[in-house]
Hints:
Blueprint: H1 6-16, H2 28-45, E1 50-58, H3 61-66, E2 69-70, E3 75-85, H4 96-108, H5 114-130, E4 137-140, E5 145-148, E6 173-181, H6 194-212, H7 228-250
Amino acid sequence: MPIASRAEFKEYCLRRLGKPVIEINVADDQVEDRIDEAIQKWQEYHFDGSERCYVRHEITQDDIDNTSIAVNDKYIGIERILPPLSHRNISGMFSFKYQYMMNEMPHLTKGNMANFHMTMENLDLIDETFGSRGQNIRFNRHTDKLYLDLVWPSSDINGLNANRSPDIFLGDYIVMVAFKQLDPSENVDAFEDMWLKKYATELVRYQWGSNLTKLVGVQLPGGVSLNGDAILAEAKENIGLLEEQMSLNYELPMDFFVA
Length: 259
């Protein structure tokens, strides 16, 4: 049956290690900690552990006073922001792209798309370099704050911005292109991820072996003894293989253009 909860996921990991045939010498809290570590690894490096999303935010007075925007801790990264949306921006039928397309329409209807395509590519490059993608932002997931390096209202410092009008105003909207962690407790299908199941099991195995290495020479009832060093070595090898598999098959490539 599909795993539908964290409790079932924990029991699955223990069964893979031999429960109930073999007693797994790991405390319940230790199992929970290892599962947390496995989920954290999966969220940060596996392409299925996070999702790209667009987050709309209205600029408040607190944002202006702090010259930063508070971000929910479920977001692990912000790629860029789209330009502020307000009545001050020229858009729609008065934008350059719209007017250019309308002027080129007679040529487009005749099948001459090459010049239009090249021009739009150049416009996207300019926008990427100097426009919304070129806006400087700073974000650290541990502070949960997004800093926008622009001129805020009443943010003049030593007269440096005295002759510049604000780039953003109270009530404007920005759209953040962000990456959000996928929470398995809300998306239980994540517990069926094969890599996550194997990795969590091996972390618990590692904890089991680590516990047993502290009980060298102790025999279990019936004269049975477990080799903690062997269990620990097996877990280390399997964890290394799974992390290599993650890097090669499931990790998203690094972006070469960073806003």
